[in-house]
Write a structure and sequence with these properties.
The complex is a heterodimer of chains A (135) and B (918).
Chain A lengths: L8 H29 L6 E5 L5 E4 L3 E6 L2 E6 L11 E3 L2 E3 L6 E2 L5 E3 L8 E7 L4 E5 L2
Antiparallel strand pairs in A: 1-10, 2-3, 3-4, 4-9, 5-6, 6-7, 7-8, 9-10
Chain B lengths: L2 H11 L4 H19 L8 H11 L1 H29 L9 H24 L3 H15 L5 H9 L6 H23 L6 H17 L19 H9 L5 H15 L5 H27 L15 H4 L25 E2 L2 E2 L2 H4 L12 H4 L2 H4 L8 H4 L26 H7 L1 H4 L1 H10 L19 H9 L25 H4 E2 L2 H12 L13 E2 L5 H8 L5 H6 L1 E3 L13 E3 L5 E4 L4 H4 L4 H4 L2 H4 L9 H4 L4 H4 L7 E2 L6 H9 L9 E3 L6 E7 L5 E4 L6 E3 L5 H4 L9 H5 L3 E5 L2 E12 L4 E10 L2 E5 L2 E9 L2 E19 L12 E9 L13 H4 L2 H4 L4 E6 L4 E6 L31 E2 L3 H16 L5 H15 L12
Parallel strand pairs in B: 14-18
Antiparallel strand pairs in B: 1-2, 3-4, 5-7, 6-7, 8-9, 9-10, 10-11, 11-12, 13-16, 14-15, 17-18, 17-22, 18-19, 20-21
Helix pairs in contact in B: 2-4, 2-9, 3-4, 4-5, 4-9, 5-8, 5-11, 6-7, 10-12, 20-21
Classes of the chains: A alpha+beta (135), B alpha+beta (918).
């Protein structure tokens, strides 16, 4: 014989509310993912090819031109994401916690341990442009 | 102090409970926020705050009110929580409410932090990136959470919504649920409002000028920033924060002893955090490097949080066009409202391009003169502040460090040799730095006589670089006053330096470094600046009759007489035509002596071999920049490089006719660079000679100098710029302008000499020092005598080299000093009669380096790899000298001797005599 287990109305709504968290959690995540997907987003950055030799700190990236060759690194420090904005003693220095990276983006002084992200780039010789591919 | 007194003080200071006071501050914060939202523009946040700081003191007041009430709200919330944890159990709130209250702590910090982000300055942008990274490190939904909280990187809309609505509403609801009121007490609100208003009048809420390289988070997270500095995997810090919240949540329900221990742990952790916060605030400078208060850079790197900037309600500048505040580099630049129309800048340094604050610091968000000029650098570019002016990230970031480690900043060689002579170091190759001068006999000797000539010596007076200028960092070379700038400068001083003097002409900073900039320091010691122009110092004074062009009076009243100027000077070449930026500003390496830092050599341009060249496409950034600023006026793709470092020489090139040309950096003239004469390369007899060994026409030297310490003579410490009691006094003997001696620079591997170069040498440190004159406790004199010659390029080059006899038959060239050197054909012996008397300490003539035909013993040079000729070398030279006593140096046989000297000696005629060395 089955016995009917009674629960209070308040408890019922607590359980119901708890269950509802999951679909809303899913919708929250899905809405942001879809939002990001439909953003126009500029995945390419374009710079003049005749940038002077040396280190150029841009908003998202660092462009290093040495002996006519380009290296494009992310400006986000791999420790906590601060924008690296200093070049000293041939090292790229993060102002927030003092991490240092060499010209190839490898970590040479902590706290950061990972190398800076390297972006691929192409050269449009016809229009004399450097195209950095962020994706 | 007894408990009653403490309670009375507490009652007066804390006029209500912590909780009710935090409500009071919250209300002030919310209300001021509503008024602040009017001038604040979320689409142009930084500029909108800049504008209100400059021109809207009333809105600025609301901003200060908002800021300070928020800080006090946070402080009193923390006090309130701590107070609550100590309450007896009967006062505890329900578990559910306590849970929401603990969660609300996150919202309290988020409302504070979002406010910090909304000012959108350099600090905020970095802090925002940090939070984004931390949130993204949460597994599974970290990225989603980060985006939901912060939104896209360059947009503040979501943060603004969270700041205004999400957090504020949540906190208001929590207050209402917990305190059963949102209004608190009227008295508490009014007192909070008055206190915060007073604070807001005196202290401005911070806004980074986006130039200062110091990046710091909000003060309450500086402890966390310190912790994060030590964590390679900073995501763990979130676990730490979560653990603290869990601990706070469970703490009221943990009984007796464990609860007590946990509470104590929390308290001590709080104290530790407080210490870390103080460290972050007061001991962390640029790049989060530790900095002590006694460091020279402390005052410019660390700003105390309570730096009063009083509200200026009645601006005297109401008449100015406040609606047209100039914007430079995205920053509102209030300086240009008053200092408009200033001219005279080089294009790169024009205020339109970089504003005023980039170089001069100060406060670009103020119109009031006192406020705007606070912490201003009147003369930017000193080594002390170069990183904050010339060397900021977007300007010349790598140069200040190079300059500071260069010899013109360290004075390494001068200090090391001085210390060696005084017996305070054993190595002549030691690296020294003028900043490490102490209060020893040797160092005080430098402080009294030499230590003002270093680039770190601050320029403390405005005005052009003169012969009396010393140091000045970047200004030492790059500061140039045009005629109009000089006129304005003189008018300003003639006006009694009036406060309202309106400058319209500014000195320029450029790469046009004329010889005048070098002259002040380099007319001393080796005197290469005066030598180069042909002037030799005399012991005359201004009272002597000097009205002839043969004499020149310097600004320091020394009298010079004309001897012969350097051929390069006659042709119009400036110092910087040869000496490149990596020599003058250093290349980042630390060198002991000047010849180590010098990169250019005569042979780099006067080619003995096929040229080493470089296309401008392959130039380093600095060379390319210089070439852009000062392009050569002829078509070329090939520039010569230095052999020592392979760096381009940006003004020496090969033209389309394959001819080597020099472009005068100052004169603008094109010169043809000649190749060395045949005689320079004929045979191998003189392979070891440097060009200057033959082509230096004269070098200054002095005789019989000595220094004594006079304890009662008032002195002046030229390093520290202060008067002293007691001073080293230098007594000069006699000044000579004669061809230099020659010495041998050698590089060896083990015992084998791998390279030998004959260089010019002059007296470097011939000094008698009475050491005990410095030691006040000693009654007896203790004289120490050193006879050290130094390798030196006198910069008196002539197109024609010195004659053969001037070396092979010359006692000065050989190092014996002036006198009669002759070969007796009867005895077949060389003899030497010195001109000057013998020194009582080493029994050598006063002007000698070595004794006649003696082997060298002991240290005789200021370098470990430089020496006088040894006995064998002296004999070899004098053997040729014997030939020259009969044969003309241009005779066929002497020319042939360049090809095979030994062959000629072996087959000499019976009349030919050679010395009998026995």
């Amino acid at each position: 014989m089955h016995t009917v287990r009674k629960i209070s109305r308040k408890r019922f709504f607590i359980i119901l509310g708890s269950i509802l968290i999951f679909p809303f959690f899913y919708i929250w995540i899905a809405s942001i993912q879809r939002h990001n997907k439909i953003q126009p987003g500029n995945k390419k950055l374009i710079y003049p090819l005749d940038l002077s030799a040396g280190v150029h700190f841009e908003d998202q990236i660092i462009i290093i031109k040495e002996a006519g060759k380009f290296t494009v690194l992310s400006s986000r420090c791999t420790h906590l994401g601060c924008k690296i904005n200093k070049f000293e003693n041939n090292q790229l220095i993060c102002p927030c916690h003092g991490s240092a990276f060499d010209m190839e983006g490898s970590s040479v002084k902590g706290p950061a341990v990972k190398s800076l992200q390297k972006y691929s780039h192409s050269i449009d010789s016809k229009n004399k442009k450097l195209i950095v591919h962020l994706s | 102090m007894n408990c009653n007194n403490w309670e009375k003080i507490k009652k007066n200071v804390f006029f209500d409970s912590y909780g009710m006071m935090s409500i009071g501050f919250f209300l002030v914060c919310v209300l001021s926020g509503i008024f602040l939202a009017i001038p604040y523009d979320v689409h142009d946040p930084y500029s909108s705050i800049g504008r209100l700081l400059i021109a809207n003191p009333w809105a600025s007041f609301f901003r200060n009110l908002h800021y300070w009430s928020a800080q006090f709200f946070l402080i009193f919330i923390i006090l309130h929580v701590w107070e609550y944890l100590g309450y007896p159990k009967d006062f505890k709130v329900k578990t559910g409410i306590w849970f929401r209250l603990v969660v609300s702590l996150l919202f309290v910090f988020w409302v504070m932090l979002s406010g910090f982000f909304l000012k959108a300055d350099a600090d905020s942008l970095q802090a925002r990136r940090i939070l984004e990274t931390l949130l993204s490190s949460i597994p599974i939904f970290g990225d989603i959470l980060s985006y939901s909280v912060l939104g896209p990187e360059n947009d503040l809309q979501i943060i603004y919504v969270h700041h205004l609505a999400t957090t504020s509403i949540f906190i208001a609801l929590i207050i209402l649920e917990h305190a059963h009121t949102i209004w608190g007490k009227l008295k508490t609100f009014i007192i909070s409002l008055i206190l915060i208003s007073l604070l807001s009048i005196a202290f401005q809420a911070p806004l980074h000028n986006n130039l200062d390289p110091i990046m710091k988070g909000p003060w309450y997270f500086l402890g966390l920033q310190e912790i994060l500095h030590w964590l390679s995997h900073p995501g763990f810090s979130l676990l730490l924060i979560f653990s603290i919240l869990v601990l706070i949540y469970f703490l009221p329900s943990i009984k007796s002893r464990p609860g007590f221990i946990l509470k104590k742990t929390l308290l001590y952790s709080f104290y530790v955090y407080l210490i870390l916060t103080l460290i972050g605030n007061f001991f962390r400078g640029e790049n989060w490097k530790w900095i002590w208060p006694w460091d020279d850079r402390y005052s410019i790197q660390i700003h105390t949080p309570f730096n009063p900037i009083f509200m200026n309600l009645y601006s005297e500048n109401d008449s100015l066009k406040l609606s047209e505040i100039p914007v430079v580099l995205g920053r509102e630049e209030s300086c240009l409202i008053c200092h408009s129309g200033m001219k005279g800048f080089s294009p790169a340094h024009s205020p339109d391009a970089i504003g005023c604050v980039s170089c001069h610091g100060g406060n670009s968000f103020a119109l009031n003169k006192k406020q705007a000029h606070k912490n201003m650098i009147l003369i930017p570019g000193d080594n002390l502040d170069a990183e904050r002016s010339c060397g900021t990230t977007n300007c010349h970031p790598d140069i200040p460090q190079r300059v500071k480690s260069s010899l013109m900043s360290t004075l390494s060689g001068m200090i090391t040799v001085d210390r060696y002579v005084f017996g305070e170091t054993k190595s002549l190759s030691e690296i020294s730095h003028v900043h490490d001068l102490k209060q020893t006999a040797a160092d005080n000797h430098l402080r009294d006589l030499c230590a003002s000539c270093h680039l770190g010596n601050s320029k403390i007076k405005t005005g052009p670089i003169t012969q009396l200028s010393r140091g000045g960092g970047c200004n030492a070379c790059h500061l140039n006053y045009s005629n109009s700038a000089l006129m304005a400068y003189k008018e300003y001083h003639a006006s009694g330096r009036k406060d309202n003097f309106h400058f319209t002409s500014h000195p320029s900073l450029s790469i046009k470094v004329s010889n005048d900039h070098c002259f002040g320091c380099h007319s001393r010691s080796g005197r290469i600046s005066t030598n180069y122009e042909g002037w030799h110092e005399t012991q005359l004074d201004e009272h002597d009759s000097l009205n002839t062009p043969a004499y020149r009076i310097l600004e320091d009243h020394r009298i010079f007489t004309f001897v012969e100027d350097d051929i390069h000077h006659r042709k119009g070449l400036a110092c910087i035509d040869c000496h490149n930026s990596y020599e003058l500003m250093g290349d980042g390496e630390i060198y002991a002596h000047k010849e180590d830092q010098v990169q250019v050599a005569c042979e780099d341009c006067h080619l003995l071999e096929p040229p080493q060249t470089l296309n401008p496409d392959k130039f380093d950034s600095e060379a390319k920049k210089i070439l852009e600023l000062r392009p050569v006026p002829q078509e070329t793709n090939w520039y010569l490089t230095t052999k020592k470092t392979a760096r381009p020489i940006v003004n020496i090139f090969i033209n389309k006719h394959d001819s080597v040309k020099l472009f005068g950096k100052i004169s603008g003239k094109i010169h043809t660079v000649l190749t060395p004469a045949d005689v320079c390369t004929r045979g191998n007899a003189h392979d070891d000679l440097t060009c200057s060994a033959c082509h230096t026409s004269w070098a200054p030297r002095c005789l019989g100098c000595h220094t004594d310490y006079e304890p009662n003579t008032p002195g002046y410490d030229i390093y520290a710029n202060k008067f002293t009691r007691g001073s080293w006094i230098e007594y000069a003997g006699k000044y000579l302008a004669i061809p230099p001696s020659l010495g041998v620079e050698y590089h060896s591997h083990g015992e084998e000499v791998s390279e030998r170069r004959i260089k010019t040498a002059v007296p470097g440190m011939i000094l008698t020092v009475n050491k005990n004159s410095y030691n006040k406790n000693s009654d007896t004199d203790l004289y120490s005598f050193h006879r050290l010659f130094a390798p030196a390029e006198a910069h008196t080059i002539q197109a024609e080299g010195r004659t053969c006899k001037s070396c092979h038959n010359d006692p000065v060239a050989l190092g014996y000093g002036e006198g009669k050197l002759y070969f007796d054909l009867n005895t077949l012996k060389w003899s030497f009669i010195p001109r000057y008397q013998l020194n009582k300490y080493d029994r050598l003539p006063e002007d000698a380096w070595i004794g006649f035909l003696t082997n060298n013993k002991g240290v005789l040079s200021t370098r470990e790899n430089f020496r006088p000729f040894n006995l064998k070398e002296q004999k070899n030279i004098l053997l040729v000298g014997v030939c020259l006593t009969c044969h003309d140096e241009n005779s066929k046989i002497m020319m042939e001797s360049l090809d095979d000297f030994q062959g000629l000696i072996d087959h000499r005629s019976p009349e030919c005599k050679i010395p009998d060395w026995q």
